[in-house]
Design goal:
The protein has two domains: about 55 residues, no CATH class; about 30 residues, no CATH class. It is about 70% helix and about 0% strand. The chain is built from four helices and no strands. α1 packs antiparallel against α2. The longest helix is centred in the N-terminal third of the chain and has 25 residues.
Amino acid sequence: MSFIEINAAGICTLIVGLTGRWLLFLSGEWGILFKRVGIGPTLMLIPWALYMLILIFEGKLFKAIFRGEAQRDTAKAFFRLTVFHWLYPA
């Protein structure tokens, strides 16, 4: 993924977060987050935050995944990517 794609993904994700926050503020539902009645917005916030963190720390994350022997062995690299996608599906 090139720098431009990462930048575009980060900008789009940030816009989604800001408009979602604005919508919660305008509708007066900001206070229902993390409560039983606000399970919908809370469940949308959690994957958004995880995705945003992955975008921010992508470089460090991939260095951690592909350190050591996985840098030289493509089978291990693809196995680690597969496990990562099982844990954090897109």
